[in-house]
Specification:
The protein is mostly beta strands. It has 6 helices and 22 strands. Strand 18 and strand 19 form a beta hairpin. The radius of gyration is 24 Å and the shape is elongated. It holds the Pfam family Cupin_1.
Length: 358
């Protein structure tokens, strides 16, 4: 039985869509649990020779490259001196890459492929607890029709910018009409990814083995350090299921279904037969697993792959049944008495023999 609380998985809404691509966002207005748990999600799709204008965001987040290849630039928050930490980092991105950015860091995204090459698709997931609107990731653009600099008086700008005339100041921030995305007529010749810049900023998650979870923390990617979040990737073969799991430190989890489909069930905090979520979720949908709840997932006919953000720097994913599980770790007679079942069923749950030893 499913509870009255609306936990349904949902697709996002396109905020910007043009020949250059689109940006799809999930909002706490449509999914209140995003706001309640302080989580946010967005999907960027860039066509060949398209560009996402420089901006900064109001939350810590990571991007996972679903498909394609491209280039990203990240300018860390200035430290007030000329230290290398404040230098722009320009990196090549490939499918399977994870890249993390902090609140206030300026970034831009570029599909430098041309001709018949494919699109670049990146899903972004963030901790929006301290964002302008919890449940939503907000962006502040330095260029384009919605630039944060576009409304300033040109004369005042010129006065604060030595050597620049009023006309030049007006032209700089009012010549680009595009919002968020723009198409390019040719490649940007000065954009050169540096392999050394990938260190600490980007890591490739590689292929996730079927039936397993792959967790990335600051130990795997330094850019996650101090953000209080981690990345978890999962994959199931068609028809396969994953044993019920819980994050025992009480961290909320945001899940984006990247491929395939699955039936997902999420327990209620009260337990019993009432579920917060029980539905088929399709690729491109997002759902939230609230703190301390238990999740069960079974893949559909085409299998399932997902990427998730966990609001914990070092998440402890614990399975409740099966080999190496929580129930399997308890004294067998305790499990048998608690569940009121036969000894052989305790063994099937992953526990040791419930028969008393002599």
């Amino acid at each position: 039985m499913q509870g009255t609380r609306d936990m349904s998985a949902k697709g996002g809404k396109a905020l910007v869509q043009s020949d250059a691509g689109k940006y799809v966002a999930w909002s706490g207005v449509d999914q209140p649990e995003l706001a309640a748990e302080g989580l946010g999600c967005g999907l960027l799709l860039l066509r060949p020779l398209s560009f996402a204008l420089p901006h900064y965001a109001d939350c810590h987040k990571f991007g996972y490259v679903l498909r394609g290849s491209g280039v990203a630039g990240v300018l860390p928050v200035a430290t007030g001196d000329a230290s290398p930490a404040a230098r722009e980092r320009v990196v090549r991105l490939e499918a399977g890459d994870v890249i993390a950015t902090r609140t206030g860091e300026v970034s831009w995204w570029y599909n430098d492929s041309d001709g018949d090459a494919g699109d670049l698709s990146i899903v972004f997931m963030g901790d929006t607890e301290r964002a302008v609107s919890p449940g939503d990731m907000s962006y502040f653009f330095l260029a384009g029709g919605n630039s944060v600099l576009g409304g300033f008086d040109a004369g005042l700008l010129a006065g604060a910018w030595p050597g620049v005339t009023k006309e030049q100041a007006a032209a700089v921030f009012r010549s680009q009409p595009a919002v968020l995305l723009t198409g390019l007529s040719k490649k940007l010749p000065g954009v050169r990814p540096r392999e050394d810049d990938r260190k600490r900023l980007v890591v490739n998650a590689g292929q996730v083995a079927a039936g397993t979870l792959k967790t990335l923390t600051a130990a795997d990617m330094a850019a996650l350090g101090g953000l209080g979040i981690s990345v978890v990737l999962g994959r199931l073969e068609p028809g396969a299921a994953r044993a019920p799991w819980v994050l025992r430190e009480g961290a909320a989890q945001l899940v984006y279904v990247a491929r395939g489909s699955a039936r997902v069930q999420v327990s209620s905090s009260a337990g019993g037969e009432t579920l917060l979520l029980d539905e088929e979720v399709a690729a491109g949908s997002v759902f939230v697993v609230p703190r301390f709840t238990v999740t069960l997932i079974s893949a559909g006919a085409d299998g399932a792959q997902w990427v998730s953000l966990i609001k914990s720097a070092r998440p402890a994913v614990e399975h409740l049944t099966g080999g190496g599980s929580v129930l399997g770790g308890l004294t067998a007679q305790v499990v048998q008495a608690s569940l009121s079942v036969a000894p052989e069923l305790v063994e099937l749950l992953g526990g040791r023999s419930a028969e008393p030893s002599h």
